[in-house]
Amino acid sequence: MFGFVKLLFKYRLAFILIIIAVLVKLYQKDVVQLLQIAATRYLNLAANKQTDSVSVQFTDTRGNLYTPEQLATYNGENGAAIYLSLLGAVFDVSRGLKHYGPGCSYNYFVGRDASVSFVSGEFEHYDPKTADDVLSLKPSDLIELAKWQQFYEKEYTYKGKLIGRFYDKEGKSTVYHQKYLALLDQAQIAKAQVDELRNRYPGCNIEWSEAKGTRVWCTTTSGDGKKRDWPGYPRKLYDRDNKNFHCACVPEAELNDPMFKSYENCAFRSEECFYRV
Length: 277
Ligand code: HEM
Prior knowledge:
Largest sheet: 5 strands, mixed
Mean pLDDT: 84
Shape: elongated
CATH topology of the largest domain: Flavocytochrome B2, Chain A, domain 1
Helix content: 25-40%
GO cellular component, one term: membrane
Structural class: alpha+beta
InterPro entries: Cyt_B5-like_heme/steroid-bd, Cyt_B5-like_heme/steroid_sf, MAPR/NEUFC/NENF-like
Pfam families: Cyt-b5
Protein name: Cytochrome b5 heme-binding domain-containing protein
Family: Belongs to the cytochrome b5 family. MAPR subfamily.
Number of domains: 2
Order of helices and strands: HHHEEHEEHHHEHEEEEEE
Bound molecules: protoporphyrin IX containing FE
């Protein structure tokens, strides 16, 4: 025992290092977290020192947080950078000066979040209360917005988050944002189902004449233009809301599926049908 204590004194530095190594291994996760917090604090301090006019707050390593007022200063005027926000995600679009610069076609989007206008095409009357309120948009619009977001992520530089509807002061996703994501998910699932149906039951050929009204008929290339070995029979296939339908070419074996409705005044195996709206 005495010998061990003697050894401990002799090689105390080596023992301390071994103990530290064991502790670091045991608490690896916490150590990494501590280092991250220290780095974030350091970046915060550095940012506050460097920028007086626009104070940038670093809350995580994936980007900065912007207040609407800060974002508005990135308007391309007097050489300023050009930023826009889509669904609360801020992008530097300075590279697209010819689209977004002062006086250019899409300058409306600059320095703010006007997500709704990406699908409404309204570029004149900006109302901050509604400009980024996307929850009441149609499912297809939500998908369109998600595509725009992918476009900006691919083509421009992601800068961070806008404090507001989609992100809170700490940069955390808001309940509103979560609702949007859930609706987008639903919209994408519904679209995948529709796409799958359209793939299985290709569309009909369609033509209109004053004398006969609308004529629908199937051929082995109708719908997507790809050749198949069955032409099918024209049937009405209704959307999920049961209001609108389109003409689908249905193979013989599935003609009795209740999902398909026959055209009025059209024989069960007729290759073409006529109707008026
Ligand atoms: C909802 C309606 C619309 C929206 C939200 C919209 C939005 C945009 C945006 C954001 C850009 C810039 C893309 C980039 O950063 O590279 C753009 C480019 C462009 N848009 Fe539109 N646009 C709309 C409708 C239209 C219409 C109706 C036309 C034609 C009549 C049109 C023609 C163009 C053209 C020619 C470009 C430039 C393409 C290029 O130079 O690469 N846009 N649009």
